[in-house]
Design a protein that fits this description.
This protein has two domains: 158 residues, Rossmann fold (3-Layer(aba) Sandwich), CATH 3.40.50.720; 87 residues, ProC C-terminal domain-like fold (Orthogonal Bundle), CATH 1.10.3730.10. The chain contains twelve helices and eight strands. It has an eight-stranded mixed β-sheet, with helices on both faces.
């Protein structure tokens, strides 16, 4: 499958690297990247891929899929530059946060075969999860082409309405930061208990990784797993009572709602181009 990426940043690099690692020919990829230093990095990392500095008909000619991987603030300019050439392309996949289908379609001159996805940063190591939504004009085969790219970086959850991608942003898009925040706190607690930095981090990371692996290997709800390790009158019960008293669970839910609302606000801002 021939794929042109618009933007050669971290996410594009990760996706290309994962696909080549799974057997794709580097010659199947082209990247539109205007920054010379970034071009040099791409060429060094992926010998054989095509690299061009600006959107042209030749840059996307013959592509089975175009992936819009620029920053959200750059999307309108990038899309408008592609608009004169995009009509023959079977499907466009956008992985830029906050860019709505209607806005991208307008900037692309009315092009409608668009899949919008919200990946998260663990995609950089092949352990991400993406929420995805396909416009009505996208065929099952075109949706499968987009899924092929996204699945190289992790799991994919297809949503029934585009507005659910704002919720995906709140849960999994911003979610790694919530996990890092918890790890930060657990590591800090370990240091306060007398552990050195290396051991404190090892304890925190492996505890989280082990608990997640246990949860993923079980059919039980997290609440049941929690109850199973919480003995009456024991240490875990004492710790959880502190978390409950502080309203930690409710605060996490509120944080996800706040991130979701902010995603909607950013979509409104990015799409406000005088339409």
């Amino acid at each position: 499958m021939n794929i042109t990426f618009v933007g050669g940043g971290n996410m594009a690099t990760a996706l290309i690297g994962r696909m080549i690692g799974k057997g794709a020919d580097p010659r199947e990829f082209r990247v539109i990247e205007p920054i010379h230093a970034a071009q040099e990095k791409l060429a060094a990392r992926f010998p054989g891929i095509g690299i061009v500095g600006e959107p042209t008909a030749g840059a996307i000619e013959g592509a089975d899929l175009v992936v819009m991987a620029v920053k959200p603030q750059q999307m309108r300019v990038a899309a408008q530059a592609l608009a004169p050439f995009i009509a023959p392309i079977p499907v466009v996949l956008t992985i830029a946060a906050g860019t709505r289908l209607a806005d991208l379609a307008r900037w692309l001159g009315g092009y409608a075969r668009i899949v919008r996805a919200m990946p998260n940063t663990p995609a950089l190591v092949g352990a991400g999860i993406s929420g995805a939504f396909a416009a009505d004009a996208v065929t099952p085969a075109q949706r499968a082409s987009a899924a092929h790219v996204l699945e190289t970086a992790g799991a994919v959850v297809w949503v029934d309405g585009e507005d659910m991608l704002d919720a995906v942003t709140g849960v999994s898009g911003s979610g790694p930061a919530y996990v890092f925040y918890f790890l930060e706190a657990l590591e800090e607690a370990a240091r306060e208990m007398g552990f050195g930095p290396a051991d404190a981090r090892h304890l925190a990371y492996q505890t989280f990784a082990g608990a997640l692996k246990l949860a993923q290997s079980s059919d039980l709800e997290p609440s049941t797993l929690r109850a199973q390790v919480t003995s009456k009158g024991g240490t875990t019960e004492r710790a959880l009572s502190v978390l409950e008293s502080a309203g930690v669970k409710a605060t996490i839910v509120a944080a996800v709602r706040a991130a979701t609302l902010r995603a909607r606000e950013l979509g409104d801002t990015l799409g406000a181009d005088g339409r």
